[in-house]
Amino acid sequence: MYEPLNALKILLKWSAGRAVGRRRPLVAVLGVTHYCNYYCPMCPYGEPDKEGQIQLEKKHGLSTAQWKTVLDKVSKNCFWCIFEGGEPTSRPDILELVRYAKSKGMMVTLISNGSLLHEVDLDELKKHVMFVTCSIDSVFEESYCKVRGVPPPIYRKVMQNLQLLGEHDIPHTFNSVITKWNADEFIDQSYFDRAVELGVDSVSMTFAEDRSDVNYSCLPDKKSMYLVCESILERIRIGKAPQIIIPPQYFEQILTHGRALFDECGVWKSVFVNPNGTVLVPCWKFNAKENTYNILEKSIDEIWEAPQWETARKCHDCKVLFCIWPASQPVTTICNHYVRTMMNR
């Protein structure tokens, strides 16, 4: 089925379910590998033991056939599929999975650090994805390498691969995690100016949410966070390129309240499948055996009837992490900015 028509069908079904209090996911986020070739301190996949990640993937990673089974399941509820990792393009079968996701009627996007895109058949990729989100935390070599823990040749290869995306006419956007190492380029707006020079017409960003499994903080200090918010809001106000696809309310709330606001966490609107096929209910912050469900063994209906979802009703642990914010906002907030912006790409 043509993806927009399938999306409409699913949304109508979802709305009918919500009318009677039924909760189900709409977006599938698939972390298709344990492995990432980067060392980002704000990400659990940035750990230095890359050989350990490879062995973990060999032992517990899902096969192509298993991921197709996952896609069979999630496509009954979800209209949008997002492939991420680890680094998804490190999987030799990533194009096969992307192609299969689209064949199930879902709109497909890919999140990548961009370092391996030159090894992907970009003409084939273009046929199946709406766009590629490139994780570009900094647009300048020195700070990029510092944030990502990679040497300068990797940065230069990523810049070349961004050109390849443009040459193959593949829609792509930048996403940045704002940390204490790159906040300055959002304050002085050089990130946006350089993004335009690199041929990108839209960007998104989120502040880092400090991890509970490490003893360091990646967040900028409060003053820097507020300066970042003020600068981004000014950029949105004057309408200068690139287009910022994050609703201004996110930054306004941080300025006013020191955190993003929501009445109830909307994490249940997405199904996050880990590289080993597990789903943590309600989210990664509740990583315990009793909260872990294997999507190969359970249906979406079974997992979404789990009692642990009640935790999300009152959990407000995430203070500035954007990925759960849109799903936790009134529909009007998203319709007025986020979805409209994405559909205009």
Outline the structure in words.
There is one protein chain. Helix 5 links the parallel strand 3 and strand 4. Strands 7-6-5-4-3-2-1-8 form an eight-stranded parallel beta sheet. The protein has a two-stranded antiparallel sheet with strand order 9-10. It is an alpha/beta fold. It contains 14 helices and ten strands. The model has no long low-confidence stretch (mean pLDDT 92).
Topology:
Elements: H1 3-19, E1 27-31, H2 50-60, H3 64-74, E2 80-84, H4 94-103, E3 107-112, H5 122-128, E4 131-135, H6 141-148, H7 152-167, E5 172-178, H8 184-187, H9 190-197, E6 202-207, H10 222-238, E7 243-244, H11 248-257, E8 270-273, E9 278-280, E10 292-294, H12 300-304, H13 311-314, H14 331-343
Parallel strand pairs: 1-2, 1-8, 2-3, 3-4, 4-5, 5-6, 6-7
Antiparallel strand pairs: 9-10
Helix pairs in contact: 3-4, 4-5, 6-7, 10-11
